[in-house]
Design brief:
The protein has 241 residues and is α+β, with helices and mostly antiparallel strands. It is built from eight helices and eight strands, in the order H-H-E-E-E-E-E-H-H-H-H-H-H-E-E-E. Strands 1, 2, 3, 4, 5, 6, 7 and 8 form an eight-stranded antiparallel sheet that branches. Strand 4 and strand 5 form a beta hairpin. 44% of the residues are buried. The protein binds a DNA duplex (13 and 13 nucleotides) through strand 3, strand 4 and helix 7.
Length: 241
Amino acid sequence: MMESRLPRSFYRRPVLELAPMLLGAELVHESPDGTASGLIVEVEAYKGPEDRAAHSYGGRRTERTEIMFADGGHAYVFQIYGVHYCFNVVAARLGEPEAVLIRAVEPVLGIDLMARRRGIVLGDKELDWWRLRWGSGGTGHPPRSPVLGALEIKRPPAAIRRLTDGPGKVCRALDIDRHRHNGLDLTRDKIYIRPPAVPVPPQAIARGPRVNIDYAGPWADKPWRFWVRDHPFVSVSGRRT
DNA sequence: TGCTTGATTGTCT
DNA sequence: GACAATCAAGCAG
């Protein structure tokens, strides 16, 4: 498969502009175990320094947040609740500490690898769904967005959905952690993002408040979470419009 | 299907 | 010392 990856210029936009543009793109990790990837279906924008929900709120610049101040196109990976990691894409330019949290993807490459990493066993029923979804492609329609293809077929089995429908699950399935991957350059390293085959049309994008940031006061109400409308891999905590 | 709760550690006050 | 951009188990219905 041809490697194409988003260039630096793509990431150098204001985070609220960049976040929805990442929907339908493919997050890829070429690890020593093999390659795994998923289509991005849910994101959240964190707009430092004015955004109280952002780790860079108030311009707070610490060892942890330092990478948020880097040029667009770097990876910001942090640990949460002592047990999970969250993967973010640094947005905008050097000195502008903005980032996009990847909340959910739909598995594309390496589903067996992801299942193993997640400790989930996939049976025949699940794999049948998989073949239907990715196997035979051509239905005679004009080229369409792969990410929207999920809306046209039967809802995926729970075991497959559970692989990557949440930010901590995405990191586990793609084997991403803070120690090895924080600060990676998405334009050069083994973690990168392929552009959407076809951009997701505006009417297929839903938006609403971000998840689990009650501490952020009025900022918690900003509709800065974006997802592919009705997509089955969007995280459970707020699938509704 | 939906709610409640405990796990566990880096980070900042 | 408090708490967090989460997850999964357990239980009720």
